[in-house]
Structure formats: C-alpha cells, structure tokens
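ok trying this again, last paste got cut off
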Amino acid sequence: MNEYKFSLHIHTNYSDGKANHEDLTDIAMQAGLDGIITTDHNIWVEGLDGFYGEGNKKIMLLVGEEVHDRTLTPPGNHLLAIGQTKELAPYAQEPQRLIDQVNLGNGLSFLAHPIEDKLEQFNEKAYSWVNWEIKDFSGIELWNQMSEFKSVSQDLSSAVINALFPKRMSLGPLERTLDLWDNLIATRNRRIVAVGGVDAHQIEKKFGPIRIKLYPYLHHFRSIRTHILTSEPLDKNFLEAKKQVLNALRQGHCFIGYDLPAPSDGFRFLVNNNDGQFTMGDEVQVTGGLTFQIRLPSKGLCRFYKDGKLVNEWNNREVCTHITTEPGVYRVESFIPYKGKLRGWIFSNPIYAWL
C-alpha cells in the first residue's frame, strides 16, 4: 500500500482563516504533508485544486467547503463537503438535500465536530450536529482539534495553558464521539468512515505591541493527520490523483494519526481469511476464521475493539494478532506517552466482517 499524509478541515482568508491557499501549501510542505483539504465556511473556491510545488516534492490541494445552517441558533449541522463540483451553501437548511447534492457530484460528506462542548467563559457556543434524520453521508470527523480545545479548557487557567502550549493539549477523540461512531455503524449497518480534522484558523491576538499566533497552521499540520492508503502511487495527473484520494476516503482506506508524539506512518490493520488479505474499510466474510494483524510504527499501547467493545489489549508491542470466527465491526486504537500523559496516537477505520 502507498501512504499519504493529509491535513483536513482548514480555513483560509476566504472565510475566517489567516492565510491564502498558496501560503498553506508552503506551510504543508514544511510540515512534511502530502496534501491538504481546505473547507471554508459556506463558500467553495473554484479553480484552485491542483499540485503545488516543484520537482519531486509537491503538495496536493483539494478545495472543499464547510457548509452549515446559519438559521439555527447557534448555527449548526456543519458538513465537510469534499470533491464537490459546485457551491453547496444554498442547500444548508436541508441537510438531507445537501448530502444528496454532494453524492450527485460524486463527492464526500463528513459530519464536522458532531459532538462539541460549549466554552461558556469565552462565550463559545457548541456547534454539534443536530439533525439525525439523514442518510447516505460518507462519515464523521472523529477527532477535531479545536473542538477538543473547548472540552479540555473549561476554566481560565486550562484555557491559557492549552492556548500557549498546544502540544500539551491533545489527548484523543471524545469518548462520546467514539461511542456515537460505533452506534451509527451498528444502527445503520453500513460503512461510516472516520477522519481527523484540525479545524485550522490560526487565531491571532494582539496585546499592545505584542502579536501572538495561537494554534498556528504549522502546529496543526504536524499534529492530527488523516493517513490515506492507495493500492497504486498517486498519478502524476492531478485529476486522476484526486480520484484516487477520494476513492480511498470513500472506502475507509485511511486512519487518523496524531503525529506529534511520534510518526504514525506505517501503521497497518489487516485481516486474512480464505479469500485473501484485506485492510481498513474493507468488508469481508467470516470464511474459515479471521486472523487480524496490527502493526504499530513503534511500541505502544494497542486496544482492539469489536462492535465498540474492548476485546483485547497489548502493551509495549509493535505487532499484535487476534484470531476469531465471530462476525462484527473491528477497529483499533493506540496510545503513546507524550508530555507526561498517555495520549491517543492512532485510530483505525474498521474492518467489517459479515457472515
């Protein structure tokens, strides 16, 4: 498999960000990314998709949109639309119609920060997803870095520490969001892909002559990433490469890696049965038993889940194996110590095993 590191859910100066698209590709190259996906609020900027850079090292830029309903209080139902072919903000008040329009354009739709907490001391509202009479969306944003800031900054001192020392903040997706994901898969009996988003704006504050950048783009781009796996190297033709990326995300051939503590490159979650070998996002039949293989990039804590329930755990291991004959939805979480705390490191997409 070929692995590519992408940063998702990024805002530019077309909405409430602090950089243009070309600047962001330069920062992404500095961070060692292979691609970024921008999603400005209720605006789709056409014509900027493409490869940026020179020589062998190029950055892929995909321009999506974060569509939300401004008529709600607070504005809600934020949807990340990726790979669409037109402006989608006019459909914001009808979430199902919005999702249908994304699908008609062969794009992808992810529920952004589906569970979010208020930050009342700073008058920050919770922008959770509220309309669940929907179907056929691609997946959810399992880990949103700036939503996590709200959850772990419930008093002034923690907010100041987290803002000034962002490397000490991130712990992992909210347990409530993990539970929601498991329940959505169970109740809808279909693939629901998880991605990680940074929700990058680069907040700038001025205190007299001093200007401070909080959560700068470079920090975001080095932290929560969605690692995309493709069977073939990305095509040199941008349109073909875009199809490869979108198809990998659609199939769930990806995982979320928090790459600040240690690179998560090389993580693999595979299963073998009588029909061969399969990876994250695949659907397999329980024929002759299943042998799951987990390979971590380095030693860490690894937890193995079936239908949202912990069924196995290994500590200080790089390679883990689980054999079963039971159907179910299987996924992996891994944790690593960093800055004095055990932190979420890797969150796989599931392998779906059916009878």
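PB: full thing came through this time. The chain has seven helices and 20 strands.
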